[in-house]
Amino acid sequence: MGKDGLQVTMDEFLPLRDVVFNTLRKAILTGELKPGQRLMEIHLAKRLGVSRTPIREAIRKLELEGLVTMIPRRGAEVAQITEKSLKDVLEVRRALDALCAELACGRIAEEDKGRLAVACEEFEKATKTKDATIIAKADVALHDIIVEATGNQRLVQLVNNLAEQMYRYRFEYIKDESQHEKLIEEHRMIYESIMEGNSAAAAEAAKVHIDNQEKSIMEQIRLDNGRK
Length: 228
Prior knowledge:
The chain is mainly alpha-helical. Helices cover 72% and strands 4% of the residues.
């Protein structure tokens, strides 16, 4: 492990190039590798203890996912979180989350109602750790229950396809401790609406949840741009 924490976790079932790709992708999604940071093959190979070949292959795949951009005369950089990219992702996620909450109202099983109640409690506990990775994991787990409760595999697939990009933005939001109480309250509103079977209220609560994320992250982007 390097002093900055970036490390490869070996998996005997995965080729090295996939292990390196997963390592770099996680580092980008969690902000360990920051927007605009140059990805130099020699430096990364040394940090991870691998050759340059899997690094080069991983960077190419990350570019295809939109997490890395190639800059003329500079090479690969971690993609910036721009206002446009944020709006593009959250516009779609807002619609999907509202639909999931609406459908879950009429389809959620009793067992999943219990799981959702526990997930809300676990999220609140997670915020007390002040560890953004733990909080993000609890947040994803809660939302996954709602998505799965729809019973619509096409919808589940669409949400999952957007999950990696969404995680990056949500992580930025979750790192802001001043937003934690608001997040807990928003989750409670979604949960209670689903428990009551109030599809309109559940959909609206899901939209407000995303709108507040967009507002907070947009302010952070503008603040960061103002520092440059």
